[in-house]
């Protein structure tokens, strides 16, 4: 056991050292090569992925509405900190408000859905996400509708303004705290109960685990962590943004992060966040900036071209206007990630290891994961 | 599905009977403009409801046979609408009139149906068939992935440099769908006015529902579909080619969606690459409301959702309509997961 354990710590150690060193190296690079701001996005989305991982990875309850929990965190943070409201709790007070709101929302959604199973549960969570989004848009007097609430406090420590590098390290620190919390939960009684529910609800009930209470805890934890991620997003933007930012697409991004990395695996979720957010907000954006936007919507050449030439002009104009724009490929990326992972590697790139060792090569991803008993 | 196929044959008659009988009754004593508004909303709701129902059948057939919420179904329909608009643009169909116009609409209906059917069959082949033995959640996740791929194809498609797509300037913007079928009133029952479009909806959806009922109830393929829905293993042992039957189900469900999406585009006159999500959700909610896996249920659910939508637009506020519809979905799933017409299912252990 000792040897694999040390190897397990080596890679995360290197990754952590690289993450800490990044802003210091980064500041010496030319502007267009700087990565530390998008990497903070990776950290925030990693927290969102870890949140979803508690419910979907550990407990096996598919949640398609995790963006709603994030949105509630965003608005809890915004309302408790913005100076147009009476609370003005500051950055840390706002984070606590978000965690609390998230936990309450998780319990509120969890309670009625205990009797819904499998794909029906997934649809209920999806519906919940849509309703939360609509309510936030429509409750204009409180949420300012699509205008968003701003300004919001930036990440700070003891009332000190931290600057870009300090904020980077602070959010990295929060991510580490979340990782440690998830790791401890996974190894605790609660975590074992979650995993046993995922593997076989009936059997775990027979072993004395109360499924309802266990699931409620998973819902509350997932929602609180997702709300934390939302609060950090809002703080970084210094605005709540508009409610439509926290839509189904965000929920699916979180799901992609968990699935690409490996459901139920904390290391996997971190890798998944790096891959998915790296593609989405680093690679695609840098590419878009490098390529630039096309100038003419439709060249007049099409009208003048003849015969086969016309087809060529038609296709070239299409490619110039649509295909060349990397952000137009985003959905395709998410979609392919999900379908290909399900077919070829349902357990993800870094499936859980250790106590929940995989049985070798099982075709059935969900059942093959981890024999807890 | 098909478990309740016996009741299916009554569905179209029941639906039509309801529409025909209820509306004049409201119209007859409708001196108040409030009542006119109500009955006019009812007609709009029922027309949209019939379209939703046709899409919902695609969901419910697939769920009945492989227990998959085919998330990509709505986006498949979206692509059908884009195909129809491309054909309209390529043939200059907006100028056609008279017999040519009717022929044009028929051409659109059938090409979209074949396209959507074939595409649905291919999606099953590529994204779902490799997962037949995997868990249901893997299948659902794959379907969500397929849905996103289709949305992206729609985004690409909307950027084609054609006049009907506004020259491809902004591929994401909603596109106008020319009103090939006029919105003029052709029939007045009491105070309720039916436009040619309303009649088109009925003329397309009702025969299709009847045909589907006949197919499921009386043909060999229909029998095989019901057998596979009941027990795939036993069906295979009886010599039924299960994969072929599932493929046919996808084709038929997709084709119905193709018909529906053309009618939808003609009725609502605007399409966008994102419309699949909402159309799909409405249809899915309809299928769940009626009892998923149940064909008459899907039709009943579709009509109810269509009516609820238009009533909520009128009497609540349009911006709350989505929340109302999703609220209904959650209440149904939590308190009566088998839907209005569905049989009570025991959870398999």
Structural description of this entry:
The complex is a heterodimer of chains A (373) and B (349). Chain A is mainly α. Chain A has a single domain (35-291, 325-368), classed as Orthogonal Bundle (ABC transporter involved in vitamin B12 uptake, BtuC). Chain A contains 16 helices and 2 strands. Chain A has helices at residues 2-26, 36-58, 66-81, 90-113, 118-138, 140-143, 163-187, 189-199, 201-206, 211-237, 248-261, 266-291, 301-304, 307-323, 330-344, 365-368; strands at 156-157, 160-161. In chain A, strands 1-2 form a two-stranded antiparallel sheet. In chain A, strand 1 (156-157) and strand 2 form a beta hairpin. In chain A, helix 11 (248-261) runs parallel beside helix 15 (330-344). The model of chain A is unreliable at 355-373 (pLDDT under 50). A two-stranded antiparallel sheet of chain B has the order 1-4. Chain B is globular, with a radius of gyration of 20 Å. With 349 residues, chain B is mainly alpha-helical. Chain B is 72% helix and 4% strand. Chain B has one domain (5-335): Orthogonal Bundle (ABC transporter involved in vitamin B12 uptake, BtuC), CATH 1.10.3470. Chain B has helices at residues 5-28, 33-66, 73-91, 98-128, 136-157, 196-218, 220-230, 232-237, 242-268, 275-290, 295-317, 321-335; strands spanning 175-176, 185-189, 192-195, 270-271. In chain B, 55% of the residues are buried. Chain B contains 12 helices and 4 strands. At the A-B interface, helix 5, helix 11, helix 14, helix 15 and helix 16 of A face helix 5, helix 10 and helix 12 of B.
